[in-house]
Amino acid sequence: MSGPDDAVARLEAEAQQWLVRLRGDGASNRAAFEDWYCASPDHAAAYDRVLLTWEVSAHLTRADRNGSARPKWPSWRPVAAAVAAAMLLMVGIGVATLAGVGRGPANAFSLVTKVGEIRSDRLPDGTRVTLDTDSRVDAVFTASRRQLRLVRGRARIAAASDARRPMELDAASVTVGDGEVVDLMRSSGLTTITMLDGAGSVHVGQQSVRLSAGQMLAVADTGPVAAPSALRDGDTRWPSGMLSFADAALAVVVAEANRYSQTRIALDGDDVARLRFTGTFRGGDAAGLAHMLAKGFHLRLSRGPDGSFILSAPPGK
Q1: Above 70 in pLDDT, residue 103?
Q2: Is residue 224 a part of any domain in this protein?
Q3: What is the CATH number for 109?
Q4: Which phi and psi angles does 24 have, rounded to 5°?
Q5: Does 220 lie in the same domain as 107?
Q6: Would you state the pLDDT for residue 3?
Q7: How confident is the model at residue 277 (pLDDT cuts 50, 70, 90)?
Q8: Is pLDDT of 102 > 60?
Q9: What is the rounded CA–CA span in Å between residue 267 and residue 312?
Q10: Domain match, 205 and 258 both
Q11: Statement: the pTM of the whole predicted model exceeds 0.85
């Protein structure tokens, strides 16, 4: 008789199988993967766990190499780090190694993505930086210092260990240190720090807030610093190229979707903007999302002179 643990193991095995298929032929398998991924929140959660394992496994590998103690992870953690390549091929993400960066006494460089692009770069020290759509990270590496500053957008940093040069993650007025795997996001005067693995301190002016794995902190450019909150379902999903929402206002959903596409979606009227949406879709597919929303909410879909999709209430409503 199978139990809940068997079901979880089965789904994680399926998620890894998808990664292998997509690595072999991502283009022909992508649509089927998206159908599987969106079919159930359990499918999405299983894939997210495998995805996060990519970053964590890099730390385990370095810990073995350095002879340091390995932490005891839950059973899903020890997935091979090679799944990274499959995940990147699946969603059309670029991957690169920045040869020569950080090897001299002082190096400054930038990592940038275009609208709709998600890219992962491995720095020579072993740090992995994954950039979301339309994002930029500026970096300074010296003999005694490593600093990454999020200028715009969102980034996931899996920081390599270096006792001589602790990693400084700086976003606007917020400086984060010590975190092993951290998501940083800048949007509309708000900086969000999500601790995915390890623990670290967030310094805001003279104030310091300790974050543990599974916690996130939102810091506004003005106003007091709120207390950390628990990580929500879907918060770790963005490197897969899939966007998930639970009971979110349509205005929020569309604003996030518009970050991934040159073709915009517009909402005509406050009543439309206040509709509540729960679901998962692929970032960058503006046409697919617009048609799905029009059908699901019985909205009228039209095109603007600039090619944008306009969703409005049908006549008489």
Answers
A1: no
A2: yes
A3: 2.60.120.1440
A4: -75, -45
A5: yes
A6: 62
A7: very high
A8: no
A9: 6
A10: no
A11: no
- End-to-end, the C-alpha distance of the chain in Å comes to 53
**Domain boundaries, position 75:** 1-91
> What CA–CA distances, in Å, run from 107 to 124, 166, 226?
12, 16, 35
Count how many residues are written for the chain. Answer: 317
Q: What whole-number distance in Å separates Cα of residue 126 and Cα of residue 162?
A: 10
Q: Mean pLDDT over all residues of the chain?
A: 78
pLDDT band per the 50, 70, 90 thresholds, residue 302: very high
Are 142 and 41 in a shared domain? no
Given pLDDT bands bounded at 50, 70 and 90, which one contains residue 51?
A: low
The single-letter code of the amino acid at 12 is: E
| 97 vs 210 pLDDT, higher one | 210
Helices (H) and strands (E) in the chain, counts: 6, 19
Q: Tell me the mean pLDDT in the region 267-295.
A: 92
Judge contact between 83 and 26, C-beta under 8 A.
Answer: no
Q: Do the domain assignments include residue 317?
A: no
What's phi and psi for 26, nearest 5 deg?
-65, -40
Find the CATH number of the domain harbouring 253: 3.55.50.30
User: Can you tell me the distance from the alpha carbon of 262 to that of 32, in angstroms, rounded to the nearest whole number?
Assistant: 25
Per-residue DSSP letters for 165-194?
Answer: S-EEEEETTEEEES-SEEEEEEETTEEEEE
Name the one residue in this structure whose structure tokens are 């398998």: 29
Per the structure, how many domains does the chain have? 3
Q: What angle is formed at CA 262 by the lines to CA 259 and CA 263, rounded to 5 degrees?
A: 105
List, for residues 181-206, the tens digit of each pLDDT value: 899 999 878 899 999 888 888 888 88
Cα separation values, 80 from 23, 43, 76, Å: 14, 19, 11
Q: How far apart are CA 265 and CA 255, in angstroms?
A: 8
Please tell me the distance from the alpha carbon of residue 154 to that of residue 304, in angstroms, as a whole number: 29
Residue 29 lies in a domain: yes
Average pLDDT over residues 11-38: 72
Q: How far apart are CA 206 and CA 238, in angstroms?
A: 31
